[in-house]
Write a structure and sequence with these properties.
Strand content: 5-15%
Number of helices: 5
Order of helices and strands: HHHHHEEEE
Strand order of the largest sheet: 2-1-3-4
Structural class: alpha+beta
Shape: elongated
Largest sheet: 4 strands, mixed
Radius of gyration: 18 Å
Number of strands: 4
Length: 107
Amino acid sequence: MPTDVLAEIGALTEELRAQSILQSGTVTVGEAGLDDAARLALVLARPEDAAYAATLAALVARDTGRPVALLGPGELTQRFGPAEGTPLTLYFDGNRFTVNPPAPDDD
């Protein structure tokens, strides 16, 4: 990962900065030695990343005890939380999330 990402979450040390110079400006998550809280901060710092929505969905499922389903784009389906119960369902069209199912195609 680029060191600017680590700097954004306050996890860039002088040692990691020096190491990154030898590795074209990047270090791996393993090399960064991030704890769970820092890894979560890393995901949440990049809302355009697919892991962002999945992380939030998993946290909501854990917090509410209800299943969460992320549907889309296309046939992609991700489920989080318990198998039983009516899921909180969000639809993703590739640009935004909505609680309303997409309109059927008129092909």
